[in-house]
Amino acid sequence: MAKKSISLTRPSDEPTAPADLDKWVADNRKIDTEKTKRVAADIPIQVHMNLKMFCTKEDRKIGDVLREMIVEKFG
User: Fold this and answer.
1) Pick from 41, 44, 45: which is nearest to 69 by CA?
2) CA neighbours closer than 13 Å in the CB half-sphere of residue 58
3) Which of 1-5, 14-18, 43-47, 66-70 has the lowest mean pLDDT?
4) Which DSSP string do the residues of 4-57 spell out, in sequence order?
5) Is the pTM of this model over 0.70?
6) More exposed terminus of the chain, fewer Cβ within 10 Å: N or C?
7) Residue 56, CB half-sphere, CA atoms under 13 Å: how many?
8) Closest C-alpha among 31, 20, 42, 24 to residue 68
9) What is the DSSP letter of 69?
């Protein structure tokens, strides 16, 4: 039977920050303080895949794209 070895290290007391802290803060800050309502909708699988591909290529979140489209149409 082969012996297994593990390495134990103490966690750092310093929290690790993301590489680009400003981008992380901007991406995680709630821009609007306006109250919101959650909406759920069923969409065709192909539409969802196309939406995901678009968001991946544009480096955007699906929710942000959908909110933008809804506000453009109904805002």
Assistant:
1) 41
2) 11
3) 14-18
4) P-----PPPSSPPPPSSHHHHHHHHS----S----------HHHHHHHHHHHHH
5) no
6) N
7) 6
8) 31
9) H
